[in-house]
Specification:
Ser/Thr_kinase_AS, single chain, 5-stranded mixed beta sheet, 5 domains, Kinase-like_dom_sf, 7-stranded mixed beta sheet, globular, Hepatocyte Growth Factor, alpha+beta
């Protein structure tokens, strides 16, 4: 509509201009450096307010590639915009320049472009010109009355958390307002609306624990009880020295809170930490390193996405078949391909590719619906039990009810499910927990036997002669092709399957040996396209073809900057080979210990390598579908690329050894000098065995020599005991340093590395940190307290006499059983230790 100025009443025009002038005069924009929105100010467009200390920003933002906008709070000094609170999370706006945030009638209110209020602090207070909104350095947006001397705000965002738990925020039950303050996930990275997952305090009085819930109803994780220091199911809290934790229960409420330790507030900040409930349903503690300009994960729980209830939504199954863990059961497709593939949001689940015949009257005369067997899967919850004597009757009952989507029959028990199937998990073949469920599909989802038969007969009769002739031509062609180039089979996103003959040619009949270990020998090779590879010939692999390919495929899906990439394999009968990227600078041991033809590693490079290797192990232990225990951490298995970036090698190979390796009570794997005590004591092996090996390796980073060396007079010197002695007595730690470094090392980093190493080699695995905690310590994110002296070293520190340590390579004793303790002398040796270098 246009305004005809010539025919418009001049008094009307004057009134309009006056109102516009008055509005502009009375509602001004906030100052660029302000932390406050006062009663006569507004926030619109690209305008923001910044907390007084420059920590947080409040303004309009767009999440990801979304076209929607929201009012939120984010970190000012974090280059990757990270939102910690959203006001209108389920009511987005489309035009930030026509929308406005201002104080109206004593409330902070967000108006849309049509001046419709869509979000408000919703206080029952009288109009007050002294009301103002202030953004604090804690990330708390508070509404307060300047004329009131009371320090308590009349409203604060900390009482209305979204998905982020900031220091000082209280998550729990407020008895005065009868409100349970909880964290709720975003729907996905583009939609901050409340998602399906929440973290909240157990409402039961006296129960001081937290739950993760799906849809505010299904509990799938508990923190365990608060013991005054940590929650029993969150042992990582024991190694977090940054924060002070408190659980409060009084007349006002029951809640948990935390704040930053005062000693860290005195330092120049090197990091920022946040605690969130992710859209995946996991709770995570992350930290931003200003030096690296990236977020890193400190810990998360549940450890794996498949432990989150209904992670893949309705008719989705969670398993190892894809890197995303989620897949649709046969006959179904993602409900939203955009959310599924681009946003990694699987909560919408899957929908049928073809409508059932029983749901469509038009298909009444078509072939009836049928069932498809889905083996090795966990059955959904809450089935309806039906008393029938055989599987045929069970199937008939489900087929006659259109609302029945699936049935299972086991142990003379019939179970049927109506409507959506939730929380399906696809297990590996042969898993004792796997069951078979029969899911109803449209008949058109199956191929017709009659049509197939007619097609086969027609093709067979009309093409027999042609096929025979073509077969001869193909055989001749393939035989020639195999001789001239590598035979490989590659599918998008999968590994390359090499022929044994081609790898034999590429490695010149395995003539250039790069190294050897407990899992086999490694050889250098060159493919016809001139790319250089490393080929490992595996030993003691007795798996069948199908199982081997499945295990290798699982290893091949693991990708991390600090892990060596598996790019192919070969399975030719009993001959099993793995093909890796070639690392031009070889293994770490050649640079640490060799004195000839190797590049000398300065302290900065050593520290970088130690930190990178630790990050690779964190990924294996905590971020893969199943925790992968390396079992043979040592310098030989840390490879270095052209830029001396570390990459952990041989991960996942323990799993390839199958049942033979899994008998941890009768088989020892690993290398002398790096074995954790539990290998000998008969305890089950966990990821903490890798932590021990890593700690022993750290000592070698410092000394530049093997931990156990024989001196010229025949004595065996065990470096860790000497190092621990220096740490305990507070001696000159620079004397521990590799003499080739000539004392050129950061003393603080050196002290930190030695203390971390001592924590890692504690005799009791429960006293060792996790690898994620090791990373935190090495990065300087958390302080490393004075470690206790391990029992196995305490005798030496106190008496300078004898200690027991492992000297024999366990890989050479794969048939030695621990139950025969009388032969323990062949595995361990009592040795006099010298404090001389």
């Amino acid at each position: 509509m246009t305004l005809d100025i010539k025919n418009t009443n001049p008094w009307f025009m004057f009134s309009v201009l006056f109102m516009c002038f008055s509005l502009k005069f009375h509602v001004s924009s906030v100052a660029a450096d302000s932390d406050t929105v006062s009663a006569n100010q507004s926030l619109s467009g690209d305008q923001t307010i910044v907390s007084a200390g420059g920590v947080f920003v409040l303004g309009f933002f767009k999440p990801g590639n979304s076209s929607n906008s929201y009012i939120g709070i984010w970190y000012k000094n974090v280059s990757e915009q990270t939102v910690v609170w959203v006001a209108n999370r389920d009511k987005p706006i489309s035009d930030i320049y026509s929308s406005v945030l201002r104080i109206t009638n004593g409330n902070l209110v967000l108006f849309t472009e049509s001046q419709k209020p869509i979000w408000s602090t919703d206080l029952n207070s009288a109009t007050a010109s002294s009301i103002e909104a202030v953004l604090l350095d804690e990330g708390n947006l508070v509404l307060r009355d300047r004329s009131d001397n009371l320090t308590e705000p009349i409203w604060q965002s900390f009482d209305h958390p979204t998905n982020t738990w900031l220091p000082g925020m209280k998550i729990g039950f407020n008895k005065r307002t009868n409100v349970n303050h909880l964290l709720t996930s975003w729907k996905n990275e583009e939609d901050p609306a409340p998602g399906l997952f929440s973290l909240e305090l157990d409402p039961t009085e006296g129960s001081n624990q937290y739950f993760l819930l799906w849809n505010r109803s299904k509990r799938y994780w508990t923190s365990g009880a608060w013991n005054g220091h940590i929650f029993s199911s969150v042992p990582e809290m024991r190694f977090n020295f940054i924060y002070n934790y408190s659980f409060i229960s009084d007349k006002n409420g029951r809640y948990f809170t935390y704040d930053v330790s005062p000693k860290f507030l005195e330092k120049e900040p090197q990091f920022t930490s946040r605690f969130i409930i992710d859209a995946s349903g996991q709770i995570k503690q992350l930290y931003w390193l200003y030096s690296d300009k990236a977020w890193f994960q400190f810990w998360s729980t549940p450890r794996h996405p498949c432990q989150v209830y209904a992670y893949c939504g309705a008719f989705g199954s969670c398993g190892e078949q894809t890197q995303s863990f989620c897949g649709c059961v046969p006959g179904f497709k993602p409900n939203s391909e955009h959310n599924w593939y681009l946003l990694h949001d699987y909560s919408g689940g899957c929908v049928r590719e073809t409508q059932l015949q029983c749901e469509n009257n038009i298909l009444a005369n078509e072939e009836s619906d049928r069932f498809l067997a889905n083996p090795d899967i966990t059955l959904p919850e809450h089935p309806q039990s039906v008393a029938v004597r055989n599987i045929t009757k069970c199937k008939t009952i489900c087929l006659s009810d259109c609302s029945c989507t699936a049935y299972a029959y086991e142990g003379n028990a019939c179970s049927i499910w109506n409507r959506n199937l939730m929380n399906l998990q696809q297990l590996t073949k042969g898993d004792p927990n796997g069951k078979t469920i029969y899911i109803k599909l449209a008949a058109s989802d199956f191929s017709s036997p009659k049509k197939n038969k007619e097609t086969v007969i027609g093709v067979a009769v009309g093409s027999a002669a042609f096929v025979l002739l073509l077969g001869l031509v193909v055989i001749v062609y393939l035989r020639r092709k195999i001789r001239t180039r590598t035979t490989e089979k590659e599918v998008e996103g999968s590994l390359v399957a090499f022929a044994y003959k081609d790898l034999q040619n590429a490695t010149k009949n395995f003539s250039e040996k790069l190294g050897a270990g407990g899992f086999g020998s490694v050889f250098k090779g060159v493919l016809p396209d001139s790319s250089v590879i490393a080929v490992k010939k595996l030993e003691s692999i007795n798996q069948g073809e199908k199982q081997f390919r499945a295990e290798v495929s699982s290893i091949g899906s693991i990708q991390h900057v600090n892990l060596v990439r598996l790019c192919g394999f070969c399975s030719a009968g009993t001959r099993k080979l793995l093909v890796y990227d070639y690392m031009s600078n070889g293994s770490l041991d050649s640079h640490l210990f060799d004195r000839k033809d190797s590049k000398f590693l300065d302290w900065k490079t050593r520290y970088k390598i130690a930190l990178g290797a630790a990050r690779g192990l964190v990924y294996l232990h905590e971020m893969c579908r199943d925790c992968i225990i390396h079992c043979d951490i040592k310098p030989e298995n840390i490879l270095l690329d052209a830029e001396f970036h570390p990459k952990v090698a041989d991960f996942g190979l323990a799993k390839l050894l199958g049942r033979e390796f899994s008998r941890v009570l009768t088989t020892i794997r690993g290398t002398r000098g790096y074995l954790a005590p539990e290998w000998i004591s008969g305890l089950a092996i966990t990821a903490k065995a890798d932590v021990y090996s890593y700690g022993m390796m750290l000592f070698e980073f410092v000394s530049g020599r093997r931990n156990c060396e024989q001196s010229e007079d025949g004595e065996l010197n065990f470096f860790p005991t000497w190092a621990v002695n220096r740490i305990v007595e507070g001696g000159d730690i620079l004397s521990l340093l590799d003499h080739r470094l000539e004392g050129n090392a950061d003393v603080e980093e050196l002290s930190r590395m030695l203390k971390v190493a001592c924590w890692c080699i504690q005799d009791d695995e429960n006293h060792r940190p996790s690898m994620s905690q090791v990373v935190q310590m090495l990065e300087g994110i958390v302080d490393v307290t004075q470690p206790p002296v391990p029992r196995s070293l305490r005798i030496f520190v106190d008496n300078q006499e004898h200690i027991i340590f492992f000297t024999e390579s366990s890989s050479s004793q794969s048939t030695q059983t621990r139950k025969n303790t009388s032969t323990a002398s062949s595995q361990i040796k009592s040795t006099t230790l010298s404090t001389s270098s």
